[in-house]
Design a protein that fits this description.
Elements: H1 2-13, E1 14-23, H2 30-41, E2 57-63, E3 66-72, H3 77-80, E4 92-98, H4 105-116, E5 126-131, H5 141-147, H6 152-155, E6 160-164, H7 173-186, E7 193-196
Parallel strand pairs: 1-3, 1-4, 4-5, 5-6
Antiparallel strand pairs: 1-7, 2-3
The structure holds guanosine-3'-monophosphate-5'-diphosphate.
Length: about 200
Amino acid sequence: MYTLLSGLYKYVFRKDEYCVLILGLDNAGKTTFLEQSKTRFNKNYKGMSLSKITTTVVGTVDVGKARLVFWDLGGQEELQSLWDKYYAECHGVIYVIDSTDEERLAESKRAFEKMVTSEALDGVPILVLANKQDIETCLSIPDIKTAFSDCSSKIGRRDCLTQACSALTGKGVREGIEWMVKCVVRNVHRPPRQRDIT
Ligand code: G3D
């Protein structure tokens, strides 16, 4: 009887926890995306004062039995060298691009290329967010895909999606998160950590 009840307790109160890195150049909209995701998925979340947000922001979002734990690592050049310290432990990557910043698109592509060729990230799903699509003059998804086209062989056979998004208005945020949940759950090579809900 105890085993049965304890099994039921675990089934109801356990979450499968997946670590998702939010990467991209500074000013791409990573922190705004994280805040928007928490607002959309977590009931009663009131938002965080921007002054309290530090370089490595952690936030969680629950979708069914899955809990995504986000790490927003900061995109300044000196912080990019820290990204790979987190690769072995993560289950997914969200790479944010500022679609209005044509000048830094090549820089963003270089950072993406470096990230995607890291062996520690083999097989890890990548969601590319073409952010700031609410601004009329932004680059379109085909423009961005063309600019990143020579990365496709390096992406390999892992799950990868380019999603139009506005972290400011929330457009595309839910679709992106739901896609990521589907991918991390089915990736048997990186099983989740199991945690009791607190
Ligand atoms: P980062 O965490 O990647 O460095 P932030 O980027 O989330 O701090 O965002 C940088 C700036 O871009 C912020 O403006 C933020 O409001 C803006 N931004 C983020 N996402 C969007 C978006 O989808 N649309 C628009 N129009 N703006 C966005 P400020 O003015 O605070 O620097």
